[in-house]
Amino acid sequence: MDRPCLGFEPHNCGLPGINPYAVRTTKTAKLQLCQPGAGPLFRSEQTRLGRRQFLGHARHGYSPRQSIFRASGGTTGQSGGDGLLDPACAVERVSLSPYRPLFETIWGAHAFDIRWPADVEQICSRGGPPSPGDPFPVHLSGPDRERATLTYDQIGLAIRAFESSPEVNAFTSKYDAVRAGTAKFTALERRGNVLFRGKARCNECHRDSGESPLFTDFTADNLGVPRNSAQPFYAEDQPDAAGYRVNPRGARYVDDGVGAFLASPTNPNGKWATLADSYRGKFQASSLRNVDKRPHPDFVKAYMHNGYFKSLKEVVHFYNTRDVLRRCAPNDPGEKVTCWPAPEQPANVNTTQMGHLGLTNAEEDAIVAFLGTLSDGYEAAAP
Ligand code: HEC
User: Fold this and answer.
1) Ligand 1 centroid vs 286 CA: distance in angstroms?
2) 221 CB less than 6 Å from ligand 1?
3) 8 A C-beta contact, residue 245 and residue 239
4) Is the pLDDT of residue 39 over 70?
5) Which atom of ligand 1 is nearest to the CA of 367?
6) How many domains in the chain?
7) In this predicted model, what pLDDT tens digit does every residue of 122-144 receive, in sequence order?
8) What percentage of the chain exceeds 90 in pLDDT?
9) For ligand 1, atom 41, which residue shows the shortest CA distance?
């Protein structure tokens, strides 16, 4: 598995977190994933010091396994993280799919050369996590298990490549048109763009340099976002039909983001575990492309890892005033306007680049207007 990259993306091997423009400081770490002899996914080493990128972090999937997890919308499965009992189940399902031949063209004719047990379908249709005594309930021979694991990772890489492709990343926003010289910002949008790059410091993390900026540098921060107590997850502490408790901590649960991933057994690199505390509460800087895109104008979106904010105005107001307005209890009448509740995770909150930006209300609005230019599908009005 020395050359897994297949030229998906020459700069970064098609893997998350390796954007060539992802440089916030001169010390930004780059994970070198395509070195000969190293599996691309789980044996990566970082080469420089400083802010590190953990393969796309908790939010965006730190491994192909996480990609498959998201692609299949799964929540519970522990071995595969994809809601299926066993990673081999995902491989078996792809082997029955119409795109199997295409997959074999890319990854080789042996991708699905696996002898499946007769009861594979029956096992894979069961829900819940596998029992601890039988973590891989699809019983395969040693070589078949090895093949299934490899193919599983390749499925993840294929999904990752798709997610990086023009089909998903259209780059057809007004912002792109302005860069190409075929559209012009309104005065308000232009003002927002200037603030985004200057006084408001947004592009220090949501980077807008390079050929087709992604508005993220792929590093992680704790912004001090308050807890969103409306999340149903807090109430999911009772065992389901299979005896599985989704959230044993119930209302006491705190999402530690990258820190939780680094502290967990799914962390692929033992050396990273020592960094867990310094990443507690940190999440990957989101791309801001399409951040304002919605199916219809009154559709309410939810922002940040826990969906605490319901509008871009709230988000920008938070960056601007988090450390200026008074602290209040959740559901205070002034919440989100004249006061802010405590951070969900108080450790590692970034207080240097945000929290007291000194923006006026009109400047906040200008930034919101600028964010609206990042939605794909812009068609310049006919002259
Ligand atoms: C210190 C780095 C940093 C700076 C500076 C920063 N951001 Fe962020 N931004 C982040 C991180 C990290 C997240 C994800 C946090 C989370 O999910 O808890 C994020 C998330 C967002 C989101 C939510 C996206 C989504 O899909 O949920 C928006 C909108 C946003 N930022 C806009 C801005 C704007 C506008 C500015 C400037 C006023 C700004 N950011 C400055 C790091 C930063």
Assistant:
1) 6
2) yes
3) yes
4) no
5) 35
6) 2
7) 999 876 678 889 989 999 999 99
8) 66
9) 202
Instruction: Tell me which residue has its CA closest to atom 5 in ligand 1.
Output: 202
User: Do 297 and 217 share a structural domain?
Assistant: yes
CB of 205 closer than 6 A to ligand 1? yes
- For the Cβ of 315 lying below 6 angstroms from any atom of ligand 1, the answer is yes
103 falls within a domain:
yes
The pLDDT of residue 256 is 97
User: Between residues 60 and 195, which one has the greater pLDDT?
Assistant: 195
Instruction: Compute, in angstroms, the gap from residue 91 CA to the centroid of ligand 1.
Output: 36
- Kindly report, residue by residue over 224-235, the tens digit of the pLDDT: 999 999 999 999
* Ligand 1: nearest atom to the Cα of 350: 1
Q: If you measure from the C-alpha of residue 134 to the centroid of ligand 1, how many angstroms do you get, rounded to a whole number?
A: 42
What is the average pLDDT value for the chain, to the nearest integer?
81
Cβ within 8 Å of residue 192, ≥6 positions away: 366, 367, 368, 369, 370, 371
pLDDT given at position 67: 45
pLDDT digits (tens, 9 = 90+) for 65-113: 444 544 433 333 333 445 678 999 999 999 999 999 999 999 999 999 9
Tokens matching residue 57: 């972090």
Q: Which amino acid is at 279?
A: Y
Return all residues near 202 (Cβ < 8 A) that are at least 6 apart: 195, 196, 288, 319, 367
Q: Which range marks the domain in which residue 196 is found?
A: 174-226+284-374
Residue 252 neighbours by CB under 8 Å, 6+ apart? none
Residue to mutate (ligand 1; options 189, 315, 374; most atoms within 8 A of CB) = 315
Cβ–ligand 1 distance for 305 under 6 Å, the answer yes
Does residue 42 fall inside a structural domain?
A: no
What CATH number should be reported for the domain holding residue 295?
1.10.760.10
Domain boundary among 123, 138, 163: 163
User: Is ligand 1 within 6 A of the CB of residue 291?
Assistant: yes
Would you say residue 27 lies in a domain?
Answer: no
Q: Say whether both 127 and 192 belong to one domain.
A: no
Domain co-membership, 82 together with 181: no
In the chain, which ranges are E strands?
31-32, 45-46, 220-221, 283-284, 326-327, 339-340
Task: Identify whether 33 is part of a domain.
Answer: no
**pLDDT average, residue stretch 17-23:** 32
Cβ pair 266, 276 in contact under 8 A: no
Q: Is the CB of 287 under 6 A from ligand 1?
A: no
